[in-house]
Batch of 4 targets.
Target 1
Amino acid sequence: MPDRADTTVLIDLATEVGSLAPVPWAVSRLRAELDAKGVAARIGTNGEESGDVAVVRVELGDVPAPAETFAIERGAVTLIRAAEPRGLAYGLTELADRVRCATDPVAAIRSAESPLRGPAVAVRGVLRSFSSDVLDRPWLRDRDFWTSYLDELAVQRINRLHLALGMQYNYSHDDDVRDNYLCFAYPFLLEVPGWEGVGVTGLSASERAANLAALRFASDAAKRRGLHFQLGLWNHAVRPELVDSPNLRYPIHGLADDQVAAYSAAALRQLLRECPSIDGVTFRVHYEGGVPEAGRAEFWRTVLSGLRGVGRALDVDLHSKGVDQEVLDAARATGARVSVSAKYWAEHQGLPYHQASVRPLEKARPDNGDGLRGITQNERRFTRYGYGDFLRQDRDFDLLFRVWPGSQRFLLWADPEIFAGYGRMSTIGGARGTELCEPLTFRGRKDTAGQAPRDLYVDPELELGTSDWRKYAYEYRLWGRLMFDPDADRQTWLRYLRAQFGEAAEDVENALSVAGKVLPLVTVTQSLSASNNFFWPEVLTDMPIARGVKSATYDFDLSAPGTWGGVSPFDPTLFESADDYASGLLTGRPSGRYTPEQVASWLERFASVADAALGRARHRVGDPAAPEFRRIEVDVTVAALLARFFAGKVRAGIGYSLYRQTEDPQHLRDGLGHYRAGRQALAEIVTTTRGVYASELAFGDRPSEQGHWSDRLAQVDDDVDEFARELDEAIAAAKPVRATVQPGDADPRPVVTCDPPAEFVPGKPLVVRAEAAGEVALTLQVRHLNQAEEYLSIPMVPAGDRRFTAEIPADYTDTAYPLEFFLVARSAAGRDAWIVPGLDGTLANQPYYVVLGQRV
C-alpha cells in the first residue's frame, strides 16, 4: 500500500468529454479500482496539480487512426488520447486494469504508457446463449451478474455481446421439445398491440415483464460500457408440439400458422422500441429455425420488415447456413446494415486459420426436392461449416465468423498464441471479425440441466454460482485484447497472472498455453462429425478402430468407407487420414499433407510441456489449494491426459491402417501398445476429475452430449479388447505379409520460400515466384477464396539460380474473389513432401497465402 501522502489521483477531463458514453463508466471503473487499493480519486482540472498527486489527463482530439484507437503517454501527467469516446474508455480501463493488478497503484499510473494503437479486428464478440430455463433464468434476471460480467468484457476490449435466444432446439427436426423458454421469444417478453390474444400458457404477466426488464437492463448496461448489444432470435417455430412434443413446457397460444410472420414483424418492431439499446438482431434463417426453406423468402421479408420504422440504425445478421440471394435481398430491403455470420471450423473450436478446404461431404449436391431443408442440404451445402462463397470483394454485406462450442465446453482454453492467431486471421478477405461462443454454451440444452450446477463442479470450494464466468476471466482477457492487438505486450496478461499466482505466473501461462493447443488440433484432425451434437472431443464418444467397423454415432456424417482410418479431417487439403498416410508410407510417395504421425507427436509434446509447467507452478504458487489454482490445475491435467489419449488412439489407427494394407501383424502389435497407453491416460482423467466435476456432463439429450469420461473409458476398453483379439487372430492365421513399408529415412528438406504478390489485377496473368535452397520440385495449389471450389494445380517451372515460377492464367484471375494459394514441395528423391508456408510451431499461423484483387 502506498504512503498516505501519495494516495490521490486526479482525473482531468473536460465536462463535455466526461459525459460521452462510455467515458463515465470507464472513469467509474478507474475510481473503483483505486478505491479498492485505498487510493482516493477525484475529477478536476490540471490547475490542481502538485507533487503528491498523480494526474490522468483525458483528451478527445484528432487522432489519425480507426475508431477505438487510443494512446497513453507518460510524462508529468499520464495522458490518454483518442479520437472518439470508446478509445478514451479503453485508455481509462487500461489504467484501471493496471491498478487492479499492481501492488503500488499510483506508481502503475505514473509509469503507464501505450503506443497509439487501433484495433486489428473491428468486431470482437462473445455469444452468450440462454439454453436452459433452470440454469439460465437466474443469471438473466440478476443485475449484479450483468454488472460484473459486462464490466469484465468491456475492460478486456470485447466490443460486442450477442445474447442468443432459442438455440436450445433445432425446431425443424427435434422431437419431444420440452424446455422452450424464450425459444419463440416475443410472447415471453411482451404483449403486442393488435395481437393481445397471443401468449404463453403458464407464463404470468409479471414474469413476462420481468423478462423484458432483464433484457432492457442488459442492453442498456452494455451500451453504457460501449458494447454493441446483438439480440439473437434463433427460432421462429411456434408449435413444435405438432411435430411430436406432448411434453412442451410453455405452449404458445392465440397464433395460427399463417399469422406467424406478421405477428413476428409487429413483435420485433415493438421489442426494439421497448429496448432502445439493442443495436442489432441475428436470425437463423435456414430450416433448423423452424421455417421450411421452400418459399421462405416471403416469410423472412415479412419478419424483417419489423426492423423498419424503429427510429435508429440497426444491424441485421444472418447465420450463414443456407443463406442465398433471396434471403440477402430480404435483409437488404430493411435498410439495416447486413452481415452474414459464418462458422469458423464447423461447430467446433479449431486452430485459428480457416480451412483450406471443407470436407467432400460439404460440397454442393443436386436439388432433391426437399421443401424443408433442400437449399441448405443441397445446392448451398458448402455454407454450413465455413465461409463458403461469401468472400467476394464486391459484396455489399459484411462477413463475421462465429467460433462454435463443440470442442471445448467447460475446460479452460487459454493459449495466447492461438488467440493472437484469431486476431490476425478473423479478417480474411475483408471480414469484420469473430464472436466466440463462450464457455458453458449449451449447458443444460434440451432440458438436460439435471441436478448439477451450471459450472459442473460438485466440489463446493470450486463452484461459482451465477458468477461461473469468473473461471474464464483469463480467457476473456486473451480473446478481447489479442483480437484488438495480436502483437500485444505479453505483460497485458502476465500482470493478471502475477496478481493471481505470484511467482508461479509464467508457469501457469505456459501450462495453459500448451494445454490450449490440444483440443483445437484434435478438432481439426480427428474430425468425426461437423456437428457438435455428436463429436465432442473434450468428452469423446469413442469410435472403434478394430475390425474396421462403422460407428452408429458418426456414420451419418462420414464419407465411405466410414471407418476410423478413412475419417476425413475438417481440412483434408492440409491434413490426411490414417489410411492415406499408410498408403503414402507403403508407396514411398507421401502426399505432403500433415500426417497422423505428426499430429500424435505434437500431442505428446504438448502433454509433456504442460505437465512440466504445471509441476513448476504447483511448487511455486503460494497456495496450491486455492480454488483459482485448483481449477487451472485440474483442467490443464485433463488437457494433457487428453493429448496422451488421442496420441495413443491416433497411433493405434496408423497401426491398424498399415495392418489392413499389409497383413503384417506387427503393425497391429505396435498399434495395440499405443492404444493401451492412451487408454491409461483416459483412466487417469476419470481419477483426476472424481469429486471435482459432476458425473453427468450434460449439454444436450443425445448420449454423445452427456455422460462422463468414466463411461467413455468403458467404450475404449471394448475396442482395445477387440483390437487385441484381432491381433491374436492375425498371429494365428500366419498369413504372408502382403506389403511392407518402404525402407529409408525421409529426404532432407531444403528451405523453400515464397514472396507472395501484394495484389493481382483481375483478368491478367499472375506470376508466383519461389526459391529453394536445394533440389526440389514445386507445385502451386491455387483456388479462389471460395470453399465451394476445388484447387487448380500448376507445376512450378525452374527459372535458374534455384528460382521457380508459376503463372496463374488470366481467365482464372478474372474473378471478384481473392486468391488463396500454397506450394507443395517434393524432395528430389520423392521420399518427402511438405506444404509451404505450412504451419509453424505455434500452430497459430496462416499456412497459405491470400492475395486480394486490385480494385479499379
Target 2
Amino acid sequence: MMEQKLQVFLLVAISQTWVAVYSNNQDFLGLKSLDWKNKPPNWVGADPCEANWDGIDCSDNRVTSITLSSMGLEGQLSGDIEQLSELQTLDLSYNKKLTGPLPQSIGNLQKLNNLILVGCAFSGQIPGTIGSLKELVFISLNSNRFTGLIPPSIGNLSKLYWLDLADNQIEGTIPVSRGNTPGLDMLLHCKHFHFGKNKLEGSIPETLFSSNMTLIHVLFDSNQLTGSIPLSLGLVKSLEVVRLDGNELSDDVPTNLNDLTNVTELILSDNKLSGPLPNLTGMNGLHFLDLSNNSFDTSDFPSWISTLQSLTTLIMEDTNLQGPIPVDLFSLPNLETVVLRKNKLNGTLDIGTSYSSHLNLVDLKNNQITKFANSDEVQGIDIILLDNLICLETTETKANYCSNSVSHSSNSSYVTPEKNNCIRTPCSSDKISSPNCLCAYPYTGTLNFRAPSFSDLENETYYQILENSLTSFFEKFKVKVDSIALSNPNEVSSEYLNIKLEIFPSGHDSFDRKEISDMGFALSNQTYKTPKTFGPFFFIADQYESYADSIEVPSDSNKSSKTSISIIIGGVVGGLAVVVLLLLAGLYAFHQKKRAEKATELSRPFGSWDTNSSSGAVPQLKGARWFSFEELKKYTNNFSAANDVGSGGYGKVYRGTLPTGELVAIKRSLKESMQGGVEFKTEIELLSRVHHKNLVTLVGFCFEQGEQILVYEYIPNGSLKDSLTGKSGIRLDWMKRLRVALGTARGLSYLHELANPTIIHRDIKSTNVLLDDRLNAKVADFGLSKLMMKDGDKDHVTTQVKGTMGYLDPEYYMTQQLTEKSDVYSFGVLMLELITAKKPIERGKYVVREIRLAMDKTKDLYNLHSFIDSTMGLGTRLIGFDKYVDLALECVGDSGVDRPTMSDVVKEIEAIMKLAGLNPNADSEPTSASYEYSSKMSSSNPYGEDAFDHSGTFPPSKIEPL
C-alpha cells in the first residue's frame, strides 16, 4: 500500500514538475522572441520568474506582467508574444525606438487588462484583434505613429475604463455599432475618450453618446471632424471635460449642453459653429470656457457669463460680440483671464472696484472700446486695448494698455525652490542638484495637461499643490524618492500645459531598473492622480541611462537558515531529478529526430510533389518561401474562425501573423478542389517570378500533409468590388477611381510586356483587384493565368476557355485563341464597372452593350447620368470623364487587333489624370484623405466570396449575345 502511495506521489510530482517546466519554457520562449536591443542585463538563464528578471512579475511560475518603461529598448513587438498566455499587464511606455506594427497575435493574450504603450514609435493599423481582449481595462496607445482606422471591435471591450489613442495619425470616421458590427457607443463603462491630435474625419455620430454612458472626458480636439455637435452629447451627465476644438464642426451648438452641470472645461474653439451663442447658465461648475474663432450670430455680450461663479478663464476671440462689457464680469471671484480679441465690443471698459483678486489679464485687442473708466486704479493686471478707438486719441497713445510692449506670456519661469534653506552647488558629471541640494541623476520627463482649469501660469500656488501631491504619492510608493522638482511651465498652441518633472532618488545617486520601471508604470497607467485643477494628463519620459547596480547579495545572517532549508528541499528534489532527467532525455531525443526530419524536408521542399497527379511537374520557383503546415497553424491560431477572412470555390483565406509581426493572407485549398493542383502550381510559379507594386506579392507556400496553401501579403482594404458595392465602407471619388484604374493597368502592362515570359492573367475582375492601406490597386489571383512562350510569329496560345462571365473576351471564347488583348477586354469591362458600380451582367443586361446604346457624345457626360455611381461625386466635375469612356470602349472593341495595348492604356489614363490636375506618378494619399469608412469595414473581406470562383469552360448559352 505504501509502495502504491509512493508511486502516486512520484507521478503527481513528476506531472506537476513537467507542467511547471513546460509553462515556464513557453513564457521563456515568448520573452526571448522579443529581440530588442538594450534589454535589462539580468535577462539571462531559462527561468525569468526564478531569476527575477527586471520588469517581469510572475504568479505560480507564469509571467503575468511586463513593465519596461523608459528602458531605451529598440526593436519591434514579435508575434510570438502570444505565448505569454497568462500576461495581464504590458507596459512598454517611453521607449522611443520601439517601432513597427502591433502583431495581430496580441489578440490571443486573453488575460491582458493593461495595454500601455505611451510615447513609443509603433506604427501601422491598430489590429482589430484587440477587440477580443475582453479583460482589457486600460488601452493607452497615445503619442505613437499609428495610422489607419479605429478598430470597431474595441466596442466589444465591456470592461474598458480608459481609451487613449491621442497624438497619432489615425484616420477615418468614428465607428459606432450597426447590426452585428460593434462600435464605441457600446463602451458604457468607459470613463475616458481621448482621441485628440489625429486625422479623424466625418461627423461625430449621433449614436456615439447616450444617457447610459459614464464618460467624464471627451477629447476630440485637433482632428478633421465635420457636421454638427451631436445632441446626444448633452445626455452624458457625468461629463467633466469636453474638447472639440480644432475641427470643422458647424451648425448651432445644442442647447442641451446646458444640462452638463459637472463640466469644468468646455473648449469649442477653432470650428465653424454658427447660430446664436449657446446659453450655458446651467454649467455653474464651469472653470474654463473657450468659444473662440467661430461664426456665431452677432450678439451683445451674454449676461449669463457673469453668473458662472467658478469661471477662471473666458476666451471668446472673434465670436461677433458687440456692445459694452458688463462690469460685473470682472467681479467673478475666481476670474484670472479674459480674452475677447477681434470682436465689436464698444463703449467704456469698466473693471470696477471689486474685481477678482486673481485677475491678471484682460485682452481686448482689435475692438471698438472708446474709454477706460478706471485705468489709474487698476493695479497688477495686464490690460491690452491696442487697435481700439481709445488708442487712436493722442492723449492715450502712450498709455501702457495701448503699447505693443504689453503682452501676456504663455510661459512661466517657475522652478521648485530649495528646501530647508539649503544652497544648491554645481554638480559633477551629468548630475543635477535636487531641491534638497543633493547631486543625483533624476528620472525626468514632461507632464502634459490636456485641459487645466486655470490659465494664470504665474500663480505659484498651483505648482506647489502639484508638488505636494506628487511628493505625497511617492512617499507612499515603493520607490525611495528624495524630492520632486517642477520647472518651465508653458502653454503650447493647443492649450495643453507642459511642465518639466524631475524625480530624485533617495539614499543613492541613481535609480535602479526596477525603480524606473515602477515610476514609469505609475505615471503611464494613471496610478498617480493629479489634483483636479490640472485635469487629464499624460507623461512622456526621457530615456534614463545612469542605472544603479540592482544586484542583491544575501547577508551572512540568512546563510545558515537558507542552508538548512536547502538540505530539506534538496532531499525532495533530488529524488525527482533522476526521473525528470530520464523523461527529458527521451523528449530531447524525440525532438532531435524531428529536427533532423525537418532539416531534411527543408533541404528538398519538393520531395513530396506528386508529378504523376494532375498537378504536373515540380514547380520552378524564384524566391518564394516554404512554410511547414505546423508553422501556418501557429500563425493562424490553428486556422481559427476568428482569423477567417473569406472563402470561395477554391478554399478559405485566413489572416496570419509571422514572428516578425508581418500580416499575411493564408489561402488554404479545399481537399475536394478538382483543379486545385494545377492552379496551385500555376500561382506559385507565376507569382514567384513577378515583382511589381501593383501585383500582390507571394510570400510563400506549403504543400505537406495533403495541404496546398499559398501565403500572400495581407491587403487590408479588401477588394475593389467591396468598395464599389459599399461592403467595405470605403467611398471612392472620381480621382481615387482614376488611380485604381491606373494601378491595375500598370500591373497588367508589367505582366504583358516586362515579365519574362509574358503572362496573361485571364481573370481580371473587381474581386481580383485589391486595395492596400493607401488605396493602391494590386492585381491578385493568378490561378487561371497563362505563360506566353512566344515562338517566332506565334503571339497567341490555343487553350480551353476560362474566365468569369461578363468579363470574358468574346473573341477568345469564339476562337479559343488567347492573347494579351483578352486581358485588355476584361480591363475595359472593369473600367465601366468602376464608374457604374454595377456588375457586368445584371438582370440580363450587359453593361458594355447598355452603355453603347445609351451614350450620346453631344450631351454632357455622354448622356450616361443614369449609369454613373452616385457615390463617385456628381456634385463635382468629372474632369476627363469623356476620354475615360472612350478609352474603355476601345478596350472592349469586338476585334482584338483594334484594342489598345496595356502600355497604351497606361499612357491614356495618365493623360486623363494630368487633365484632372493629378500627378499620376505621385504616391496615393493616405486613406483618410478622400474616402469614408463605416463600421462595415470589420466584415470586409479582401479574399472572400468569389475571389477564387473560376468558372471554367462556359457553354454558349451562358454568354449573352453582344
Target 3
Amino acid sequence: MMGRMYLGLALVCLLVASGSLGVQGQDGPTVTYDARSLIINGSRDLLFSGSIHYPRSPPEMWPELLRQAKEGGLNVIQTYVFWNLHEPVQGQYNFEGNADLVKFIKLIQEHGMYVTLRLGPFIQAEWNHGGLPYWLREVPNIIFRSDNEPFKHHMKKYVKMIIDLMKKEKLFYPQGGPIIMSQIENEYNTIQLAYRDAGLRYIQWAANMAVSLKTGVPWVMCKQREAPDPVINTCNGRHCGDTFTGPNNPNKPSMWTENWTAQFRVFGDPPSQRAAEDISYAVARFFSKNGTLNNYYMYHGGTNFGRTSASFVATRYYDEAPLDEYGLRREPKYGHLRDLHRALKLSKKALLWGNPTSQQINADLEIRTYEKAGSNICAAFLSNNNSKVPGTVNFRGQDYFLPAKSISILPDCKTVVYNTQTIVSQHNTRNFHPSKKATHLAWEMFQESVPDRSQLDINFMQPLELYNLTKDTSDYAWYITSITFDRRDLPFRSDILPVIQVASLGHALIAFVNGEYIGFGHGSHIEKSFVFQKPINLKPGVNEVALLGILVGLPDSGAYMEKRYAGPRAVTIQGLSAGTLDLTYNHWKHMVGMPGEKLQLFTEEGASKVNWNPAGIAGPPLTWYKTYFDAPEGHNPVAVRMSTMGKGMIWVNGISVGRYWVNYLSPLGRPTQSEYHIPRAYLKPTKNLLVILEETGGNPTGIEILVVNRDTICSFITENHPPDVKSWDKTGEGLQTVVESVKSGAHLSCPGEKVMKQIDFASFGNPYGSCGSFGLGNCTSPNSLKVVEQHCLGKNKCTVPLSREIFDNKNEDKCPEVSKILAVQARCAHKKT
C-alpha cells in the first residue's frame, strides 16, 4: 500500500516537472524525486554527503580524501564550481591542476559515490569575490545577482559552458556519470529583499534558465523558501531538523545542503568548535523527521591557497571538519558520524518505505517510529531534547535510558545500536613535530624600498579605489604624494609632532613619510574601515607621503557586491601651525603591486635577479626572506610555523600556500592560525625554495618546518553505551533481529601501519578530561594500565573489553557503586622507531 502511495507521488512530481527535468528515455538511467526522496534509477536511498572543494587541496590529495570519505559512510560528494578559478580572464579558461573539475568528478565516481554540483555561479564559500571573476565588475551597467541583462548574459554563458562540459564528459547520471543533482544560485533569500521586484524576477529567471539546460537531474536552491518549481528548496544551518519549514511543494523531498561542521574562521577569531555529539543529534533528528539527504559543510575544508580567500578569511578552512586541513581524521567527529551513518543505513527500509508516527511523552521526550504495515520493517528514534537532564522512555514494554540532548536509534524497534551523545569511536589529538631533516634554516633577505615617484605611472587627483586599481592581480598598491613646507608651516616646539590621519575603507595599510616607516593599521572582518593615525616627522622643503594599500581578499557576501570599495579615501595632516592640511586632493601617483612581486622573487629565476643578504634576527617591514630545506622525513603532512612573523605571504617552490597573519591576535591573545599547510605534492626531495614576504616586520629565525600527525589516540567510553552491532539478519522484508552483538569495549586503531608503542594513560573508574589531558578521578582500578597494555601494546588495532571482571574481581573493586568509565590514551609509531 505504502509503495503504491510513493509511486503515486513520484508520478505527481513528474507531472509538476512537465518533463523539464530533462530525464532521458524510460530505458535509460533516471533521477527523479517525490515527497520522500530522490529516486535514482528507480531506487530510493538515504544520502550522506560531504563537501570537499577540489581547489582547496592539490590533486595528489584527492584520492585519499575520497577514500576516507567513503569509509566514513558517505555516498555523495558535494562541491562548488569556482567561476573566477576557471575564467580568471574573460574568455580564457583554466581547468588544469587543482582546477581540473572533470578529473575530480571522475575520481568521485571511481570511488563509488555520487556528486552534487553547486554551480552558483555566486557561491560565497568564503572564497575570493564569492567565486565571481573580477572582470565581471567592469562590465558596463552590471548589477550582480539581479534582474540585470548584463549579469544574466554572463551568468548564463558561464553556467551553460560548465553544463556543456559535464555533458561532453558524460558526467550526469542519465549519461552514466555520478552527478545526481545540481544547484543554481546560493542562499539568495538573505539578499533578495534588497533588490525588491528585480530579485523575485531574477530568481524565477535563474530557475527557468537552469531547468532549460536539460541536465537530466534535479536542480536545487538552498535557503530559498519559494524556489520555483520544479527546483527544490533546501536547508542550510546547524539544526535543520527543527529550523527548516520544509519544501515549498508537497512533492519535493526534504534535503539539507549545508550542515556546518564548525565555522569558518577569519583572522582575529578564536578557535571554532562544534561537538560531534551536537552534529550527530542534528542529523539523527533530521532523518527522523523525513529528511533524505544531509551534507556536511565541510567534510574536508582544506586550504585557501594563494589569494583565494575572501576578505579577512584565514588560510586554513574548516579545519574542525571530520577530515582536518591536512586530510587527517579528526576523531571522534569522523568516527562518531561514520557510526551514525551505519545506524541510519540499518534503518533505511523503514525510513524510506515505512509509515511515520510520532508520540510526545512530555515536553522533552518523544518517540518517532517508521513502520511498514504487514511486515516486520520498523525503526524508532527515541529523543531526549532536554540539554541538561537525562531521561527514560518506555517503548513497547521496555525502558530505554536517554542521556541529555540525545537520540537513540533502534533499527528494529528493539535494540539501541547508536546514541548521539554516547561516543564509542576513538578520539585523537593533532601533533606538530619539528622536522628532523628540515632544520637549521639559513635565511637571506632582500628589503623592498618605497618606490621612486618616477616608477609610479598612474596619476590621479585623489587616491584611487583599491579594488579597481589592483583588479585582483595583487594585494598591494602604492599611493604617493608630496607637499612642500617652510619653517613657518611646521610646529614651533620640537616636542610636538604633526599627526597623519588616513581614513581607509580597508583592509590594511603601511605608511611612510620621507622614506621612514611610520606604522601599520588594519580593519577587521566585521568592520573593514579604519582610521590610521600616527605622529610624523616633517622637514622644511619637499616631504613625501607614501601609503601601501593592502587587501586581504575581496568580499564574498551581501547585496550589491559590485559597489564595494576599499583603500585610503581621505588623508590629512593635523597639528601644523596653520591647522589641518587636507592631502586628499593633492595629486597622487599610484603603482599596483610591489617590485619584488613583478620580479617574482618567490621563484628560482626571479630570486636570482636581486642581491640577497644574510638575515638578522628581526627584519624591517616589507622584507623578502628566502631559504632552502629538504623534504621532511616520512609521509605525514608538512606545515610551516610562522609564530615569530607578522603578516604576509608564503611561497614554496614558486607556489603560493597562502596569506599568513600571526600578529593579529584573537581575544584569547593568540594568533588565529600559526601553522600553514605545505602539501607534500609541492615538495622535491631536496633543496625546496621557501620564500616569505613579510609586510610588518618579523624574525625569520623562529620559523619551523613541521611534520603533522594524529598519532595520539584515545578512547573514553562508559558502561551505558550501546553494544557494538556486528551484523544483522536481513532475511525477509527487513531487519528482523540482532544476530550478533559483542560486549562493549574500547576500540583503538593506529593510522596506517603504525602500532601502539606506548600507553600514556589508562583508567577504569571515573577519570576525567579529554584526549591529551586525561586525569585520574577518586576511583580507578590499579590494574588499568596492565590490562590495557596486555590488549593493545605493539598492535595496530585492539579492543579492551569494558568489563569489571577483567579489571577487578568483586573483592578488589573499591567503588562498586560508581558507574565506570574506561579512558585510554596510546601513542602510535612505526615499529622501527
Target 4
Amino acid sequence: MFIETLERKRVEKERQHKVCRSRGGESCAFDGAMIVLQPIADAVHLVHGPISCAANSFEGRGTLSERGSFHKRGFTTDLRELDLIVGSEQRLLKVIEEIVRETNPQAVFVYSTCVTGLLGEDLERICSDAQRKIGVDIIPVNAPGFIGPKNLGNRIAGEVLLDYVIGKEEPPFRTDRDINIIGEYNIAGDQYLIEPLLEEAGFRILSRITGNATFREIKWAHRAKLNVIVCSRALVNIGIEMEKKYGIPYVEVSFFGKTEIAQALRKIAGIIDRDGALAERVERLILREEEKLKRDLRKFENLLGKRAVLYTGGVKSWSMISALKDIGIDVVGVGTKKSTYEDEEKIKELVSEDCLLFEDTTPANILKIMKEKSAEILVAGGRNLYLGVKEGIPFVDVNQERHRPYAGYRGLLNLAEDISKAIEFYSKDRVNRGPLSIKIRKGFIDPLKNSPFVGAAMALQGIDGTVPLLHTAQGCNFLGKVLLIKHFREPIVMNTTKLFTEEVVMGGEEKLRSNVLNFKKKGAQLVAVITGALSQMKGEEIEAVIAPLREETFKALHIPVPDYEGSIEYGYAKAVDLVLSLIPERGQRKRKGQINIIVGGHLTPADFSELREIFELFGLKPLILPDLSHLDGSRGFSGITKGGITLSEIEEMASSEFTVVIGRSLKSAGEMLKEKFGIEYRVFDSLMGVSSNDELFEFLSLLAGREISEKIKRQRRILIDAMRDSQFYLARKKAAVATEPDLAFGLSELLNEAGIDLELVVLPIGGENLDRIQAMEVIIGSLSDLEGDFELILSNSHAEDRAKKLGAALLEIGFPVYKSLGYPNKVTIGYRGSLNLINEMANLIMKREVH
C-alpha cells in the first residue's frame, strides 16, 4: 500500500508539472539547458568542463537567429587534469575575461557539467565575482548531466531566466497587445513563419523566449499582457511563475498544422482582444491562409490515406498528429516515451481507436510496429534516420536537428513536400618553405578538439561482436553517439550505464556490473567499458568489477580516457592499444604473407577497403585493426557491432610477419606488437600525394617480393596528370588546414605537391614530429585561430561559418563531416584517393572564382 501511494503521488506530480516520464533515452540536463538558452544568439554560452560536452554538442541544434551568431559557435574552458586537482576557478575566470574581451557579448551563460558539478564549485559566487569585475552579465547554469534528463535541464534553464534575466529592465515602449512567445527555439526557422502571422493578426511580440531572441528583450518580458507557451513540457514553469509574480496569464498553443494554427490565433485573440477589434481580423487571416493552403496541397494528394508512425516529444507528440491529419495522413502508431500524461490524453483525442501508443521506442520495436501497421512513413527524430535508411522506410525528421521549418501554413506545405519526396524516392528501386613556426594558443572558442571517448568508441566500431559501454552520465553517450551518427551516417553501437545523482554519490559499480552482464547475455564477445573524467574523479575500481566477469569466450576491457587528456586521436589510439593487450603471450608460428595493419580514425571507411585491396594486390593477407570499412553503408542495424576484425583474428595478429602502422598517433601499437611478439613494424605518417604512396608501394613490393602491378602504375599516371591539369587553379593558392595531427601530416604533403601554399595548420593538440608538417605556421588551438587571407580551408563541418567569414572555399574533411553527403564512401588515400582530393579542391576553387 505504501509503495502504491508513493507511485500515485509521483504520477500526480508529473501530471501537474508536465514532466516527461522517462529518465533515459533523451539526453541529459546539460543538453536540455543548452537547448533553451543557446538560441539567445547575442550571448556567449560557455561550457565549463573538459572538452566532451562542448565538442559533442557543437552545432548540434538546428536553431536559427538573425540577432547574433554565438549560437553557432562553441565556447569551453577545456579543463585539464591539473585544473581538476588544484581547482578550476581561476581558469574559468580567465576564460570569461578573454572571451568577453575578444567577442564583446551581451552576456555570458556559464554551464556546469558533470565534472565541474562533482567538483562542487560555487558557480553562483564565481559568476557574481566575474560580473562585478567585467561589467557584463555572467549567469550560472547549474545543470550537470547526471542530475536528470533533458526535460529537467529545460526547466532549470527557465528558472535561470526567471532568476537572472526577466524583470531586469523596462521595455522602450508598451502596447495592450504585447505577447511573449515561450518555448519556441526557431528550429530550422519555424519562428520566421510564425511571427508574420501573429503580427498580421495584430499582436506585438514583446519578448521571444528564446528563439531568435536578444538577451535584452528577455529582460523586459515581465511587461507582456500574455505569455504564449509553445512547448509546455519544456518551459511551463516560466508561465506559472510569471503569472504568480507579474499577473501575466498564459496560454498553451501549437503552430504545427492548420487546425492548431487557427486554434492558437483564436486563443490569443480571446485573451488579448478585450474590445473585440481583433476577432474579425484573425478570422480573415485564417480564411485567406486556409484557402491558399487548400489549393497548394492539391499537388500532394498522393498522401491522402497514407499511414504514418510518429515518435517525437513535447508539444509535437500531439500537434504533429494534427498536422499530419491536415495533410491527409493517418497516424497508426505514436511513441509516448517522451510525452507527458497530458500529452498522451491529447494524443488519444486525435487518433483512431486502433492507433497504437507505445513506450518501447527501440529501433527494433519501431520497425515491428511499422510492419504490423503497414505504415508507409516514419516521422521521428534524427536518431531514427538510420533505421529508415537501412530498412528502406520513407523518413522525415521533425526534431531539433532538422534544417527545414514545419511550423505555420508554409511549414505545413514543407512537411507535405518532404513526406511526398520521401515516399516517391522509396517507391523506385531505386617544396621547401623555410623554418616552421609553431605556436600554442588557448582553445576556448570554437574548439577543434573532440572528446577522447568518442575516439575510443569509434575505434571499437571496427571490432566484430563488441559493445562500447560508457560508464558516465547519459548525456555523454547521447551526444557522442549523435555526433558519430552524423559523421558516418550509420547506426553506431554505443551504450551507457546512465549514471544519475544516486550513483555518482553512492557508487555505480553495481550498475556497471549489471550492464556488462546484460550485454554478455545478448551475445557480445567484448564489452569495452569506457570511463571519462566523471568516473576517473570518483575513483571507481572498474577492473575489480569487470575482471570476475571474463571468460574464455567473453572479454571485458577497461578503457580509461578522461576528457582532460588528449583528443579524439588519443582515445582512438588508447582503445587500439588496450585491445591489443588482450592477445595472450604464447608462442606463435609466423604465417607467411600475413601482415598487420594498424589504421587511424582519420581515414574514411572507404579508405579501409582501399587499404585491403592494395595489400591483397601484392598477394598479402591483411589483418586490419580496427576495420571501419563496414561503416560505409553496408553494415546494417544491430545492438552489437557487426563486421570488422574478429577477436580470433586479433589473436592471430601475434603470428604475422610484419606490422604497418598508418598514422603517427598509433606508433605505440606497433611498438607493443614488436615487444610482445618480435614483429617488426613501420609507421607511415601519410598516404596522400605521390611521394608517400611511392614509398608505400615500393615497400610492399619489397615485402611481398612482387613487382608493382600495372593497375597501380596506371593510377599513379592518372594522379600526376590530374595534378598537371589542376595547376592552373591550385598553384600558388593560399590554404589553411584545421584537423587532427595525423590527417594534417597527409594533407600538408598533398597540398605541397599540388603547388598550394599551406600558410597555416591548426591542430587541437600537439604531437611528435610537428616540424615535418609542410606549412608556414602551426598553431595548437581552435577553429577561431583560423585567421588569414586564404582561398581554401580544409577542415571539418564546424569550419563552415569560419570559411564564409574569411571568404574561403571549404573542403570538408576530418571529424566530424556532416554538411555534405558521401564522405564515408570517399577514398582519400593512395593514388586514387589523392586524385579525388585534387579534383575536389580544384573544383571548389573554380566555383569560388566563377561565382
